Amino acid sequence: MQIGLPKEIKDQEFRVGLTPASVKALCSQGHQVFVEKGAGLGAGFTDADYETMGASLVADGATAWSKALVVKVKEPQPSEYQYFRKDLLLFTYLHLAAERALTEALVNSHITAIAYETVMTADGRLPLLTPMSIIAGRLSVQFGARYLEKQQGGRGVLLGGVPGVPPGRVTILGGGIVGTEAARIAVGMGAQVQILDINVDRLSYLETLFGSRVELLYSTAAQIERVVPQADLLIGAVLVPGRKAPTLVNKDLVAQMHPGSVIIDVAVDQGGCIETLRPTSHTSPTYIETGVVHFGVPNMPGAAPWTATQALNNSTLPYVMKLANHGLAVLRGDPALAQGLNVVDGEIVHPAVQDVFPELGTAGVANLGS
């Protein structure tokens, strides 16, 4: 199969869909990989690195997009919608619940689109979302500590405190992968840490990880109203696979936070769980509303592209190889990958995305041809 690897064009997105090592693995199976010049530079991979591994370099994104299978990292940007076509298989993060225009473009073009974030194993794991969730969770505290600095518009709180002065308070909404990794870094920095979650079993598991170093709270509206105003750093880490994140913190509650406190919502690419938070970019990452610093960068792991690209490829390559070797027919024998199918032949086939856009075309996976 011919595989295209275009350069990411989202603001300051330096990750790349395939590493040179992944290209070598694909070429060794007889596939052809066409890499847009400069696609890997931001992640530390030169054009020569790709050529050495068997890739063919192409001058522009249009050529890379013209291949049968296109592998990316982030959702296509509006300028890329022109490349959508019926015979194209796209494999990337999509996060369609918060992207109506993209969803409509995919449906109208009759493209086949498989989303990393909805590939799900029988036991409920999200193997292609997990590596980026780990990185985003860890980065959320790094960014939070930075924007708490007075020069960045923050309150001037040192998360770890010093002898005689209490540490900063980090409140995390959600105890999944993102929340757990955020807590890991916050605890390491010496902060006071709270995690709120509605899953008692998950809270029990987190107790085995953190013991008394983290305050573990069952999440209710009353509990959220109690703890949010006290937070120096509030991290949204809520995930409902394929669906828009629920709004847990409204504007009135945000207004009760200390001026200069910081909010980071990792769920922003799924619509966010904090009412006042909107998507931003690495170029302009923050804004202030009701006196609180808001950070809403949806491609947070793009700040660590060398690490993130390799972590992502460790998980995606087996699935890319299956698609390259067998095409869509592989979905019938791989239920986890089939869960990743979001749009095909002008129809939305993922139930969660169907629920968000019921007025757009919908169908079941059973309607797919072999």
CATH class identity of the largest domain = Alpha Beta
Strand count, sense and closure of the main sheet?
Answer: 8 strands, mixed
Q: Tell me the series of helices and strands, N- to C-terminal.
A: EHEHEHEEHEHEHEHEHEHEEEHHEEH
Name the quaternary structure. Answer: single chain
**Total count of strands:** 15
Compute the separation of the termini in Å: 17 Å
Strand share of the residues? 15-25%
- Poorly predicted runs are 364-370
Q: Any idea of the CATH topology of the largest domain?
A: Rossmann fold
State the CATH superfamily name of the largest domain: NAD(P)-binding Rossmann-like Domain
Mean pLDDT over all positions: 95
Total DSSP helices: 12
Helix content, binned percent:
25-40%
Q: Write out the strand line-up for the largest beta sheet, numbering strands in chain order.
A: 3-2-1-4-5-6-14-15
